[in-house]
Design brief:
The complex is a heterodimer. By secondary structure, chain A is an alpha+beta fold. Chain A contains 11 helices and 7 strands. Chain A folds into 2 domains: 109 residues, Ubiquitin-like (UB roll) (Roll); 162 residues, Orthogonal Bundle (Fumarate Reductase Iron-sulfur Protein, Chain B, domain 2). In chain A, α4 runs antiparallel to α7 and α7 crosses α10. The N terminus and C terminus of chain A are likely disordered. By secondary structure, chain B is α+β, with helices and mostly antiparallel strands. The chains are: A alpha+beta, B alpha+beta. At the A-B interface, α2, α3 and α4 of A face α1, α3, α4, α11 and α14 of B.
């Protein structure tokens, strides 16, 4: 990232002592210290607005927009914690602005809101999240086996539960932002998928109907080995997904099982295929497929399309 | 002439919600070079807000269910104003569309024997909604998103479309827009364009819709000469949050009532028993004892009145509040805490538990929720051909909320997600067929492009112009108070005058800063779409002198059988919107019998 989020400009310094207690009308006020700038640099600017109570940070950012800075760039959509658009760092903590209540913050001090640090800044609080969309394209899609004779797929709720935990993900990318492998190491991005996509891999790996094996991909190209399970991702997940315990650790174990199984090793030696290209919708099928599945070695043409 | 970025495709889909993605998947699979253009990032569309489920007569929970029952429920819920053919196709095809999602990786909740579980919802005779807890929309959107990505469909994100381009024959030839990130223009040449831009909720003050719900697709179609139908039919969802103020309007799923939640007034009374309309009396329980037994025995007992269609419930809540029996913050109480165990509530309604805990500091397993009506959905929209999703403009297709007809005067819960899939697929299929049948290349008229961009950039030149946020605020206040849930002639006429005034103010707004990711500027442009919608809704509402579904007239409280046979058609004549009643398509006799035999 070209600019560092703690670079404070002169304008901010001059207004940092703004009265945060109450405005002229007697309504309590609050000061937001917002990062303004673009990929060439920027600074924190202070905006003092009414503190109306019962609000979330995004409400106050919107009021700044409507009253003082109509060109303040910020992404948001649902304002209900369901779409994962309004990710930012509030007082240095990666949060969804729509789910951060003002009453949980100390409003006697300015509240700092800065863009996600792991991403290049586009403008103000809006960052370039294209890395995530690029990684998504590298993961081969779900690939089910045939339906039961009566035309249905059967699955026990307990198996569905395991997968559903990961499918709760709203793609806010807070976990990608806080992961130390890429937070200050842009150079790791090409060979590291990040926690969100390890959860996606785990979801597919644990899906009772899927027939592909993505373990080799996870380890060779998507860098699951870089993760040293500090659980930062789990801590910031607004959906409470146990990314480290339920996705990454089991995936690491399965990768290890596949890599160090001597029969699988021999199979890889003999049958290795070229790695899937980003546009490909099918994975290389390692012979060391899931123990609980019958693996077809012939990728099916995705049906129904 | 300045150079502008341009792309050429066979099919361009505007909107990346469920309908847009499903359309693109189908068009791409049919061999058409397909692109999606969307105003936000991929995967953020309003479809994620759909909670309860997708309605499809799979018959997994109640084998008695089939497409004919679903069709009948949908038509009755829509107060028979629906396009019968759309309702039929929808009911027939929804089960296949749901099963197809499963093939693409969706993981629905399961029955004990491992099939897709279905839940109860208002207006549906049987438990019919395939669901994933209370986050079904997210599952549907993510599944379609992942499918589209795996097919390699090109997605142009954070791009706002300003205008549709037409060729000399009057057919659509593409669209012009700009990148929100840079403010620079971009042109898409296309043989077919699919509008799948969703709803219009941001035109009202209290809404469950996100910032994107500004009616862009409705306006693009109107400006391109397409017909709109029944724009007066707006759904106010009965259960939106009312407290705290910042959460006002956020949706509370109908699943709460489907899973046992009941509505109570200030005195603790289950007031819905006082509002059972004659139309539904035969199938609705008239005592608490009967209603409470229905959850476990649907054969011998009738459904609770809390599960009447949304228009009925919203009106009843409105009456309780007006009668002084509301909750402290102007709503009523939705109580599931006293009726189900905390474990059940958390398992069935995890997002609702989370939402109230985080936003209102309310534990829904211990206390009732305070709720009230919120602007949620527009049943009216672009007039389309039922089978092909073609609009009245050649080369232009529409699917999902932006299209009209499917839901008549009131939409049943769960019928929106199935609508997206059924008609998204059809729009994609026929848009591709149209494009692939056209020889030669698309020619884009640069003159049109320049004109559109010049107009879009005009607010930058008006340094002393009014703040677009102020104009938007006033538009929302106007629509909320004068064209809201209960309407009357004098107020509608007042709204019409105010809108004329707001047109002038919107045309004179000024914006600060520069073109790069400038929300003030974006709002100035979205305002034009919202105003177009507001005009259509207001004019149609004046003309429909009856109460039907989502359109309630204080001065005409009853339904008029004659008006039940017409669509209110709005279209552009020059620069003004006109409204004309035109006859509905007539249902064939073999389908009519479904309503006569007391099915």
């Amino acid at each position: 990232m070209a600019t560092s989020a703690d670079q404070t400009g002169p304008e901010a310094a001059s207004t940092a002592t703004a009265d945060v207690a109450s405005g002229a009308s007697g309504t309590p006020t609050v000061t937001l210290r917002l990062w303004r700038g673009d990929d060439t640099g920027g600074s924190f600017n202070d905006y003092t607005v009414d503190n109306l109570g019962g609000e979330v940070v995004l409400d106050v950012v919107h009021r700044v927009q409507a009253e003082q800075a109509p060109d303040l760039a910020v992404r948001w959509n649902c304002k209900a914690g369901k779409c994962g658009s309004c990710s930012a760092e509030v007082n240095g903590r990666p949060r969804l602005m729509c789910m951060t209540r003002m009453s949980t913050l100390d409003t006697t001090q300015p509240i700092t809101v800065s863009p996600l640090r792991a991403n290049p800044v586009i403008r103000d609080l809006v960052t370039d999240v294209s890395y995530n969309f690029a990684v998504a394209r590298r993961i081969p899609a779900f690939h089910p086996g045939p339906r039961d004779a009566d035309g249905t797929y059967r699955m026990a709720q307990v198996d569905a539960d395991r997968v559903q935990e990961f499918r709760k993900c709203i793609e806010c990318f807070l976990c990608q932002n806080v992961c130390h492998v890429v937070r200050d190491h842009e150079e790791n991005k090409p060979h590291f998928a990040g926690p969100r996509f390890f959860a996606r891999l785990a979801e597919l790996e644990m899906h009772p109907l899927d027939t592909l094996d993505r373990r080799d991909l996870a380890s060779r190209e998507l860098g699951i080995g870089y993760c040293n399970i500090t659980k930062c991702c789990t801590e910031v997940c607004p959906e409470g997904i146990h990314i480290t315990d339920n996705a990454i650790i089991p995936m690491k174990e399965r990768v290890v099982d596949a890599r160090y199984d001597p029969i699988a090793w021999l199979g890889r030696k003999i049958l290795r295929r070229p790695a899937p290209t980003p546009a490909s919708s099918t994975a290389s099928l390692s012979p060391a497929g899931k123990a609980h599945e019958t693996i077809s070695t012939q990728p099916r043409t995705p049906a129904g399309g | 002439m300045p150079e502008h970025e341009s792309h050429v495709f066979d099919v361009v889909v505007i909107g990346a919600g469920g309908a847009g993605l499903r359309a693109a998947i189908e068009a791409s699979a049919a061999g058409a070079r397909t692109a999606i253009v969307c105003k936000s990032l991929l995967g953020k569309a309003h479809t994620v807000m759909a909670e309860g489920g997708v309605a499809a007569a799979l018959g997994n929970v109640w084998p008695e269910d089939n497409w004919m029952v679903h069709f009948r429920d949908t038509m009755r819920g829509g107060k028979m104003l629906n396009n019968w053919r759309m309702a039929q196709l929808h009911a027939q095809e929804a089960p296949d569309r749901v099963l197809e999602l499963e093939e693409w990786g969706a993981v629905f909740d399961r029955t004990p024997d491992g099939r897709i579980l279905q839940r109860d919802f208002g207006g549906h005779r049987y438990a019919r909604l395939a669901h994933v807890g209370d986050r079904t929309g997210l599952e549907l959107l993510r599944t379609c998103q992942q499918r589209a990505v795996s097919l390699g469909i090109e997605v142009f994100m954070e791009c706002k479309i300003l205008h549709l381009l037409k060729d000399s024959s009057g057919a659509v030839s593409g669209a012009v827009g700009f990148w929100r990130e840079s403010g620079k223009p971009v042109v898409f040449g296309a043989k077919s364009v699919v509008l799948a831009s969703g709803g219009v909720g941001k035109t009202w003050k209290f809404t469950s819709n996100s910032w994107e719900g500004t009616g862009d697709g409705h306006a693009l179609a109107l400006w391109a000469g397409a017909d709109m139908i029944d724009m007066e039919c707006v759904q106010f969802h009965p259960t939106g949050m009312v407290w705290p103020p910042s959460a006002r309007g956020i949706l509370v799923t109908e699943g709460v009532r489907g899973d046992g939640g009941v509505l109570r007034n200030r005195d603790g009374e289950r007031f819905m028993f006082n509002y059972i309309p004659e139309f539904y009396a035969k199938e609705t329980a008239d005592s608490i004892e009967e209603a409470d037994q229905w959850y476990d025995n649907k054969k011998d007992f009738r459904r609770p009145p809390e599960l009447l269609p949304r228009d009925e419930v919203a009106r009843s809540i409105n009456s309780e509040v007006k009668g002084g029996r509301g909750s402290p913050h102007g709503g009523v109480f939705l109580d599931i805490a006293s009726r189900r165990t905390p474990e059940y509530i958390k398992r069935r309604l995890p997002s609702m538990y989370h939402q109230f805990k985080e936003l209102a500091d309310v534990d829904i397993t211990k206390e009732p929720m305070e709720i009230g009506p919120t602007c949620h959905y527009i049943m009216g929209g672009i007039r389309v051909d039922a089978d092909t999703a073609a609009t009245t403009v050649p080369g232009l297709y529409a699917a999902g909320e932006v299209a009209g007809g499917m839901h008549g005067a009131n939409r049943l819960g769960g019928n929106s997600l199935s609508d997206l899939l059924v008609f998204g697929r059809r729009a994609g299929q026929y848009a591709a067929e149209h494009a692939l049948g056209m020889p030669g290349d698309v020619l884009v008229d640069s003159g049109q492009v320049q004109e559109v961009m010049q107009e879009a950039l005009a607010p930058f030149g008006r340094e002393t112009g009014e703040n677009p946020y102020a104009v938007h605020h006033e538009l929302q206040e106007t629509m909320q108070s004068l064209v809201g849930i209960i309407r009357t002639e004098s107020e509608l006429l007042e709204a019409k005058d105010k809108l004329a005034d707001l047109d002038e103010r919107a045309a004179a707004v000024g914006v600060e800063g520069h073109r790069q990711f400038n929300p003030g500027w974006h709002l100035a442009l979205d305002l034009q779409s919202m105003l177009a919608v507001a005009h259509c809704t207001t004019l149609s509402a004046i003309e429909r002198k009856e109460s039907r579904g989502g359109h309630t007239r204080d001065d005409y409280p009853a339904s008029d059988p004659e008006l039940g046979k017409v669509n209110m058609v709005t279209r552009l004549a020059g620069t003004t919107v006109t409204v004309t009643p035109e006859p509905l398509p007539v249902m064939p006799d073999e389908l009519k019998t479904l309503f006569e035999e007391g099915h």
